[in-house]
Every structure is written in C-alpha cells, then in structure tokens.
Design brief:
- The chain is an alpha/beta fold.
- The chain folds into 3 domains: 13-216, Up-down Bundle (Four Helix Bundle (Hemerythrin (Met), subunit A)), CATH 1.20.120; 229-319, Elongation Factor Tu (Ef-tu), domain 3, CATH 2.40.30; 324-456, Nucleotide-binding domain of ferredoxin-NADP reductase (FNR) module (Rossmann fold).
- 52% of the residues lie in helices and 15% in strands.
- It has 19 helices and 11 strands.
- It has helices at 13-38, 41-44, 51-73, 78-84, 86-119, 123-133, 137-154, 156-159, 164-171, 173-181, 183-188, 190-193, 196-228, 298-305, 341-350, 373-383, 404-407, 412-419, 434-446, and strands at 231-239, 242-248, 262-267, 277-280, 289-295, 313-319, 331-337, 358-364, 386-391, 426-431, 454-456.
- The strands form 3 sheets. A 5-stranded parallel sheet has the order 9-8-7-10-11, with helices on both faces. A 3-stranded antiparallel sheet has the order 1-2-5, with helices on one face. Strands 4-3-6 form a 3-stranded antiparallel sheet.
- Helix 19 (434-446) links the parallel strand 10 (426-431) and strand 11.
- Helix 3 (51-73) runs parallel beside helix 13 (196-228).
- The longest helix is centred in the first third of the chain and has 34 residues, at 86-119.
- The radius of gyration is 26 Å and the shape is elongated.
- Residues 1-12 have low confidence and may be disordered.
C-alpha cells in the first residue's frame, strides 16, 4: 500500500542543538583561558625566566580542554548525535584531536625549555628531572606516549595500512592516555593548586565527560541490548560477497530507528565478537525484525556471514541523520553506488512519498552487483516510484558518477538533468564510495541543485 503523504515540517532541533552544544564547547575554552588570566598569565609572559612556562600553562589548559571535547564528540550522547550526525562529529573529533595534540606538544616543549632556561640545566636533563621529581609527571609521560601512538595511527597514510578493527582497538588507548595525563594538571597546575574553585570546576568537567562515556558508550548499549534481546534469525547470501543478517527481538518499535539510519552491531560469534561494526539498516525497521546488509571483507566479514541462528547481538544506536526528516521539498532523488544501496533501499521503502515524487538511481560495476534488485523492483512497483539502474565499469581518466558508456555521451550534470525531471527542486540523498559521492555532489551542483538539498553521511575512517 502506498504510504499516506502529508506535509513534513522542516526540522529545527538540529540547528538549535548545534548552536547550543557549539556555544557550550566554546564556553569551556573561554573558561580555561579565564583561569589562566586570573592566575596572572599575561603578566608572566613579560618575565624573562618564566615567560615560556607561562605560555606552556595556557597551551596545556587549552590542549586538555580540547581533548575533553574530542572525547565528548564521540561519547554517543543521543541529543548531540541527533544535532550533528556521527559523520560530522567524527570529523570534529579528528580536528580537535590533531589540534589538541600539537598544543600538547607545544606545552611539553615550552615547559622543558622554560625550566631549563630558568635553572641553566640542559634540556634533556631538565626533561628527566620533571618526569621523575614532579607529582603525576611519570603518569603524564606514559599518557603522552599513548596519545602519540594513537595520533600516529590516525594519520591517513598509517590508517590505510591497518585494518579497521585493529585501528579501532588501538584507538581506545587514547582514553587511557587521557586518564594518565590528567592528574599532573591538578597536582602541579598553579591555577588549581591555589584555587579550590578552579580545581572543582576542572574535576566536575572531566567527571561529566567520564560519566558520559560510561553511560552512553557502555551503559546505554548494554541496556538496549538487554531490553530488545536481539538474536540472529537468518543470514542470507545476496550476491558475490554480500550478505544480509535478519534479526529478531522484542519491542523493536521502541528502538525508534528510522530508514536511513545505522547501528553498530556486535554478534557474539566467538573470538572477535567485541569488535563493533557500523552497518545501515537495509530495510525499513519493523516491530519484530531488523536487517542489515554488508559486504564481507577480512576475517570479521567471514565471521559475521557465518553467524548461526540464535546468536545474541549487542547494539548501539540508532545513529545518523540521513533520514526523511532532512527533506525540504516535495520530491526526492535517492542516489546509491555499490553497497551504499542499503540505506537507500530502506528509504525507498519507508519514505512518505509516492508516484513521480520518488526516484532512485542505483550505480554498480556490473548487473551482478545490483544487490537487492528484486526487492527494489517490488517496492517500486508497489509504490509507483521510478528506479534507474546504471550497471557498468567507471570511466578511466576522470572522476565520474556515471558508467564509462554514459560518460562518453554526457557530462555528469547533463546526464542527471536528462534522467531526472525537475531535478533542481528535489532533495537528494547520496550513499556510496567517497570518490563517487564527491563526483555526484559536483554534478548536482552543476545541475543547479542547492547544496542545502543534498544530504549524505561519510563514514571513511
């Protein structure tokens, strides 16, 4: 049955949530700067022997504050996730991480250089003295080593050489590094030793961050998993190395998952089960069933594909803002490539659009790789939606969202305008490999689609 169509209000909570959380984040940076000023920081910059140490205190305070914000960005706080979307939070997390790292490096260099200049000691000897004699500094040194390791593995060139599962596990050492680095500020920092109020603020801020991690990264997933008691009902081979996992559970409607969203899944299949995998829902969620579809790769892919019926499943989520709530107009274009069809198939089924209002373009390297095609055809026939399949290899020599055959006959934006009527007035949802999405976004812009009407989520790690 074709879903009822009714006006969709333009969502406002996202913009408001971003404004509020962004203002709070900026406020924490202003507070730590105020702590530095209140302890005579600016005046200390003019003194010969202490200027470097005074500057080090400022860089250390700001680095620690940004480190806290970096942790909070990925704490899975629900209202923050809904406001920003996990892909945007991941980019913020990465930016804050590198910024705080370089400020931390400046802090260490300035402290060592400042004390060495004041005492007339060599830099290496002064570094050793600080680590050994000052309270908390040995812990801080160990935490710094861990943070350096995490940052080194987060550089793109290094990440390409490490499996996602291993990178994610090593990345968790950042939490240990943060915990080890924090005490030395409270035990040695002039701002906190002389001001109980400042120390109470700092403890409260970091305590709230630790509580958010425990509640939303540990407690909430355990509660959701116990509440809904998801188990594997069936694993179905779809095409080549693509599989669908069907899950049954209790009161799944109360999970409030929406088409276009994803969850992180842990299938208790034996060794390696604790590693989480973010996969989109590949059909509109039901009260008694969920499904995700994935391309098997590596050891974990084979393990997931071999999950037996009855296997228990732990979940986090739902996450993501690639939902109907982002729509602004009366018509929609869904564009998918490869395994990116999974959230688009769920949106095709669950969106409250009908007839010529809803169009799907599905790009794949060959007809055999058009995953879930029978389901898509059935949904389109029932709903009156238009589906355009574009199988074929990509063109060589240039980035394009088209097949090589079409790219020889059209420019990227001309093909879009020819395939989809009234393109400029549509909301467009994209999902696929990052280079393909970049080419599709450029074509949409050239075809006159406003940027605010183009919606995607990027999950490259």
């Amino acid at each position: 049955m074709t879903p009822d169509r009714f006006p969709l209000p333009r969502p406002r909570h996202g913009a408001l949530g971003r404004a509020v959380t962004g203002a709070l984040a900026c406020a924490t940076v202003l507070v730590v700067a105020a702590l530095w000023v209140s302890a005579g920081g600016p005046a200390g910059l003019d003194a010969d022997g202490t200027g470097l140490v005074t500057a080090a205190r400022l860089t250390g305070l700001v680095a620690a504050d940004l480190l806290l914000l970096q942790v909070l960005a990925m704490a899975r706080v629900p209202w923050v996730e809904r406001a920003w979307g996990q892909d945007r939070l991941a980019r913020i997390h990465r930016l804050l991480g590198f910024t705080s790292f370089w400020l931390m490096a400046a802090h260490v260099a300035l402290v060592v250089a400042g004390y060495a200049a004041s005492t007339g000691t060599g830099v290496l000897a002064q570094l050793a003295d600080l680590v050994v004699r000052y309270p908390g500094m040995l812990l801080a040194a160990a935490g710094t080593v861990l943070l350096v390791l995490v940052v080194a593995l987060s550089v793109r060139a290094a990440r390409r050489r490490v499996r996602y599962e291993n990178w994610h596990l090593l990345h968790l050492y950042a939490y240990l590094g943060v915990g080890l680095a924090l005490p030395h500020q409270l035990w040695n920092g002039a701002h906190f030793v002389t001001s109980p109020a400042a120390a109470a603020y700092w403890w409260t801020l970091w305590g709230a961050g630790a509580a958010a991690l425990l509640v939303f990264r540990v407690g909430r997933p355990l509660w959701l998993s116990r509440r809904h008691r998801l188990t594997v009902a069936e694993v179905r081979h779809e095409a080549s190395d693509v599989h669908s996992v069907y899950l049954s559970g209790r009161r799944l409607d109360r999970l409030r998952a929406r088409p276009g969203q994803f969850l992180t899944w842990r299938l208790r299949t034996g060794r390696g089960w604790s590693r989480a995998h973010p996969f989109s829902l590949s059909e509109a969620p039901r009260a008694d069933r969920l499904r995700f579809t994935f391309r098997a790769a590596g050891d974990d892919g084979a393990r997931l594909a071999g999950a037996a019926p009855g296997t228990a499943v732990l979940i986090e989520g739902p996450f993501g803002t690639l939902t109907e709530g982002r729509c602004r107009g009366e018509r929609v274009l869904l564009m998918a490539a490869g395994i990116g069809i999974t959230p688009m198939r769920a949106l095709l089924e669950g969106m409250r659009y009908a007839d010529s209002e809803l169009t799907l373009i599905y790009r794949a390297r060959s007809a055999d790789e058009l995953v879930l095609r029978d389901e898509i055809d059935a949904i389109a026939a029932e709903r009156g939606a238009q589906v355009i399949y574009l199988p074929g290899p990509p063109p060589s020599g240039r980035a394009s969202w088209l097949t090589a055959e079409l790219a020889d006959r059209y420019t990227d934006h001309e093909a879009l305008a020819d395939l989809v009527p009234e393109l400029a007035g549509r909301d467009v949802f994209l999902c696929g490999p990052p280079p393909w999405m970049a080419a599709a976004r450029a074509a949409l812009r050239a075809a006159g689609v406003p940027a605010r009407q183009v919606h995607d989520e990027r999950f490259g790690w």
